[in-house]
Amino acid sequence: MNCSSYSVDELIRTCVETGDADAWEEFVRRFHRVIAGTVIRTARRFGEIPQALIDDLIQEAYLKICASRCRVLREFKPESPEAIFGLLKTIAFSVTMDYFRSKRGRRESLEAPLGDLDPPSMPAPDKKILLRQIDGYLAAATDPETRQWDRRIFWFHYRDGMTAREIAAIPGIGLTQKGVESRIQRLTVRVCSWLVQERQKKGRGGGGTGRKFLMNFVLVR
């Protein structure tokens, strides 16, 4: 089967529905560079990394793509032919970051950005509750037209540690680096203001204290 002339949609559909070896070979030919490149750039944040480990992480990214009968590909709804690159970058980035977070026994998610709202001493169960509450707020309170990308941008930045420049480079985002920075700033202020209000409702402080950790939340970025 000659798959070189297939569109992205045709290629993904053939890979998912038939598992054809030629289709997967074409998939690797087209997309290996973006998967491997994302793994390498992400891993280099943690210093010099052995090539064997890089190879393992790339393989793990492919396993993630193929997991549950290629669920991520089956559920993928591209807005443009380039959108697949954003999906694959996200998978490769997440696989690599998850490895180093697990290895070092620490999270690089909200500990620094949240400041007083999420101190290092916060118990893990409470932290999980906090993250669910924030995500629930983002799902309910943001503009329906931009909600999906608002949530992704917020978590790309605060959970996955991506910079505004890296986020802007994801196909489908549709924002410049400055646009991403502005979106992150706006979402940060809204989320933190909401958390301040929630604390005040529960009698956990407000007023000057609330304003203080609101500023910490915004500035410690």
If you had to describe this structure to a student in words, what would you say it looks like?
This protein has 221 residues and is an all-alpha fold. It has 2 domains: 97 residues, RNA polymerase sigma factor, region 2, helix turn helix motif (Rna Polymerase Sigma Factor, Chain: A, Orthogonal Bundle); 109 residues, no CATH class. The longest helix is centred in the C-terminal third of the chain and has 25 residues. The termini are far apart.
Record the SSE blueprint.
Elements: H1 8-18, H2 21-43, H3 51-74, H4 83-104, H5 111-114, H6 124-141, H7 147-158, H8 164-168, H9 177-201, H10 207-219
Helix pairs in contact: 1-2, 2-3, 2-4, 3-4, 6-7, 7-9, 9-10
How far apart are the first and last residues' alpha carbons, in Å?
51 Å
Number of helices: 10
Strand proportion, as a percent range, falls in under 5%
Structural class: mainly alpha
Could you say which overall geometry the principal axes of the C-alpha atoms support?
A: globular
Number of domains: 2
Q: How many E-type strands?
A: 0
Along the chain, the helix and strand elements come as HHHHHHHHHH
Q: Which spans have pLDDT < 50 for at least 5 consecutive residues?
A: 105-121, 205-221
Short account of what is shown:
The protein has 221 residues and is mostly helical. Helices cover 71% and strands 0% of the residues. Helix 9 packs antiparallel against helix 10.
